[in-house]
Amino acid sequence: MNEHIIIIGAGHAGVQAAASLREEGYEGRLTLISGDPELPYHKPPLSKAFLKAADAQPQMLRAQAFYDTQKIELLKGRRVTSVKPRPHTLTLDDGSQLHWSKLLLATGAKPRRLAVPGADLAGVFYLRDCADAARLRDALATAQKLVVIGGGFIGLEVAATAAMAGRRVDVVEAAERILGRAVSPTIARHLHAYHESLGVGISTGCGVAELRSEEGKLRSVLTSDGQELDADLVLVGIGALPETELAEKAGLVCDNGIHVDASCRTSLEDIYAIGDCVSFRYLSPERVLRLESVQNATDQARIAAKAMLGKEAFYDAVPWFWSDQGERKLQMAGLSLDADREVIAGDPHSAAFGVYLYSGERLVAVETVNRPGEHMMARRMLAAGFSPPVETVLEGPAALKAAMAASQ
């Protein structure tokens, strides 16, 4: 059978994998299947810039000319209904079949659904793709009162955007603080106060009991602690689940995502997976992670491209993330899962500062607000395994830069 690599999913992961395969010298047939009718686009702006202007268009990852010149067959608005590992075939939604020599799953993640009375009312929104964002933007144009369910990155980004556009916004978070699993307590407190300064009401430690309507129209959100928050529309941002249905039906091992090794290989030969849909061991056999980030998606794409072509490649990148919330640019490098103390660099009540997270004497993560240069230096320090003494952190970026140079 002639070489034919097929990539299912055309987000950041899938498009980067296609590009990397060509960069690595693959000359065979290459097909990229997208469920979206649009050219593949950047998703992070959908919760921010895209919502601000009625005529804003999605920002394309690559122009059509890229797919043409690289001889990448892009199938838009198509869905894969099944994957057969043994004969190396897949079936599309029109019943047609394609044969592949190697298959890459980049199916991403889907929003976790809200399961309370009223969750199916018109006026309840999720944000996953451009179509979702366009519907939300249209609704925000006439709505005055938005309730965001979930104090994670997506919810807070939309909350800030809507509040700065003059909407009344309330955020309901079940955990005791916003961004509870994502950032340090210091960063969470800072962003909580910042959102309140924008006029956003934030309720933590309570869930949602019911979405209420009047004459079939969304009217309010009833929280588990008895509050009733007026709402013209609701955005649900309570986390995401990996898209593993195809993988599970094909017999791949899945555990909070499609399980892959350090080279992005799945449990079945010739099938690879990357991005938000995968789980993998990171730094130790005991730690299995699933990372939802553009960085992870594109880094794994480069690794998978090499591995599919028989080249030795292993994922060991320093994870990094970002979130733009109004005038606050939060950037994170590393993983704070093992952190047992934090060192604050600068004034956490100001618009720019950093938090250095340590496990014992080892630096494991750095979070910065409106300090992009310091974020870049943090990524270099973590990649080099350099853990600066606390007193050096407190002296500032110049001292950190000098100390890192000396260590090398």
In short:
It contains eleven helices and 26 strands. It has 408 residues and is of the alpha/beta class.
Could you explain the architecture of this structure?
This protein is α/β, with parallel strands linked by helices. It has 3 domains: 4-109 and 241-308, FAD/NAD(P)-binding domain (3-Layer(bba) Sandwich), CATH 3.50.50.60; 113-238, FAD/NAD(P)-binding domain, CATH 3.50.50; 327-407, 2-Layer Sandwich (Enolase-like, domain 1). Helices cover 27% and strands 29% of the residues. It has 11 helices and 26 strands. The protein has a 5-stranded parallel β-sheet. A 5-stranded parallel β-sheet has the order 9-16-10-11-12, covered by helices on one side. Helix 1 (12-23) runs parallel beside helix 8 (294-308). The longest helix has 15 residues, at 294-308. The chain starts with a strand and ends with a helix. The mean pLDDT is 96.
Strand content: 25-35%
Largest sheet: 5 strands, parallel
Mean pLDDT: 96
Q: How is the largest sheet built, in terms of strand order? A: 3-2-1-7-19
Total helices: the number is: 11
Can you tell me the CATH architecture of the largest domain?
3-Layer(bba) Sandwich
Provide the domain count. 3
CATH hierarchy class name of the largest domain: Alpha Beta
Supply the CATH superfamily name of the largest domain: FAD/NAD(P)-binding domain
Distance between the termini: 50 Å
Give the strand tally: 26
Structural class: alpha/beta
Radius of gyration: 22 Å
Query: What's the CATH topology name of the largest domain?
Result: FAD/NAD(P)-binding domain
Work out the helicity level: 25-40%
| Poorly predicted runs | none
